[in-house]
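note to self — DONT lose this again. spent like an hour looking for the file last time. sequence + predicted structure for the chain T wanted, 217 res
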Amino acid sequence: MGEPEHVTETRAAYDTVAASYEQLVRSLLTESPMDRALLGVFAEEVLAGGGGPVGDLGCGPGRLTAHLAGLGLDAFGVDLSPGMVEVARARHPQLRFAVGTLEALDLPDGGLAGALAWYSVIHTPPERQRAVFAELARVLGSGAPLLLAFQAGVDDPVHHRQGYGHEISLHGWRLDPGRVERQLADAGLAVRARVLREPDGSVHEKSRQSYLLAVRR
């Protein structure tokens, strides 16, 4: 059987925009104190649990992988797009990056001390996300935290035909936080904190942003 259509489409789109994307998002974290605060809480949770390898799953060009490393974590990145991984390796040669998919991570059971999925589940159709959350739970150790970020909505789809200066075809979903939380619970991930904030007024945000911090039971 061939891979799902959404996987092929997402890889092609991010391969196309990889270099432009990195340049445009490079400074976004410095402009978002709330994002930095949430990442800081996540890092403290990992370190309080004794530390260990942390996966930035759907890492893109590696900007958050590098930020987590700067917070003292043994962070590495995984991304579906070979183009993104190439950019990440060039931008952050001191860190580890690999090509992989959220639905079938090449990682051992319970091997991670933490996982970050920062806007990386939004290109998986909601009806297929249960399998993604089960895979995230599989690779996390007992008590290890997961920080999930996504655009909030009612599982409504958006089709992007242009992005970062390129013509592309890319589907995304604004996800229902309640449904996501229920499916995380079904996968064995207990949500410990919920943040829902309004758009920041920039051209990058048109909907509410949701963050869920969960731990592997």
